[in-house]
Design goal:
Radius of gyration: 18 Å
Largest sheet: 9 strands, mixed
Structural class: alpha/beta
Mean pLDDT: 90
CATH architecture: Alpha-Beta Complex
CATH topology: Spore Coat Polysaccharide Biosynthesis Protein SpsA, Chain A
CATH class: Alpha Beta
Number of domains: 1
Strand content: 15-25%
Number of helices: 10
Helix content: 25-40%
CATH superfamily: Spore Coat Polysaccharide Biosynthesis Protein SpsA, Chain A
Order of helices and strands: EEHEHEHEEEHEEHEHHEHHH
Length: 289
């Protein structure tokens, strides 16, 4: 395990790459332009067939004090790749970073300020901070201004482990900042984990931790056709009863896989899952927790 310098403000940024040659340089440039500078970027490539690693090594030559390439076996997908890096680096705080987005200049600063507020209110707790983001095309032209709105995500209504039954997406990984206590509850070899971001949030809430969403947009979330996971083809407002009937198999499989992940953490029965899904929708209609 790589140890960070002794600094309780230091952030380890974890970037999982795979065939990201087209955009990874622009992403790294956006990190180098952050208003908060006390961070180090760790990259692990998952067996790229293009020039991704060459691009990263070029940046390392220019910024050896800011970027490290972790060299170990490919993990076979984004989820395992991201989770494996948590076990390789020890730091007070971590952030996940996709290879193809652009971070707005105050992303780290805004997230860390909120982290400090939450840690003061909830000392000794696992904490995950996440933000909204803007969905853009490959040329960074706007597609949808708010990922929260697009996906029907209301972070204020997911406060406990029970509440996680409400929405299958709790936070978008590329917006997350989490402390070491959240990392300690995250098993990097979790077989039921669908994606790294959702798994980590579930583990934090399972430990009575805090997952807190900020409405500010801090990322340009690039959609280019080769995304491992994207914003999805359908916005939440269009997912009505008829949509669920037409796409029954897809909706069923998504919920089956998500519930299996919850059950692996001891969530409870399918009836409990359905109850909290209904409660989540009721809270949205009422506008109150």
């Amino acid at each position: 395990m790589t140890n960070m310098k002794d600094n309780n403000q230091h952030i380890a940024i974890l970037m999982a790459t795979y065939n990201g040659e087209r955009f990874v340089g622009e992403q790294i440039d956006s990190l180098l332009g952050q208003s908060y500078e006390d961070w180090h970027l760790y990259v692990h490539d998952d067996g790229s067939k293009d020039g991704t690693v060459a691009v990263i090594k070029g940046y390392i030559q220019l910024h050896p004090d800011k970027i490290t390439l972790l060299e170990y076996a490919p993990q076979g997908g984004a989820c395992r790749n991201f989770l494996s890096m948590i076990g390789k680096v020890e730091a007070p705080y971590y952030m996940f970073c996709d290879q193809d987005d652009v971070w707005l200049p105050n992303k780290i600063e805004v997230s860390l300020e909120e982290m400090k507020r939450q840690e003061a209110e909830h000392p000794g707790k696992p904490i995950v901070i996440h933000t909204d983001l803007s969905i853009v095309d490959e040329h960074l032209n706007g597609i949808f201004s708010s990922m929260y709105e697009y996906t029907g995500k209301y972070p204020q209504y997911i406060r406990t482990f029970n509440d996680t039954g409400g929405h299958t997406s709790i936070a978008t990984g590329c917006t997350m900042l989490f402390n070491r206590l959240a990392e300690k509850g995250c098993d990097a070899q979790a077989e039921k984990a669908i994606m790294h971001d959702c798994w980590l949030c579930l583990c934090a809430l399972k430990q009575q931790g805090v997952v807190y969403g900020i409405p500010e947009k801090t990322v340009l979330y690039r959609q280019h056709g080769d995304n491992c996971v994207g914003s999805g083809e359908t916005k939440a407002a269009d997912v009505n009863f008829l949509f669920r009937i037409r796409h029954f198999k897809k909706v069923y499989e998504q919920n089956r896989n998500y519930y299996a992940m919850l059950r692996s953490l001891g969530y409870g029965s399918i009836f409990k899952y359905l109850y909290y899904k209904i409660m989540y929708k009721r809270r949205i209609r009422r506008g109150a927790y």
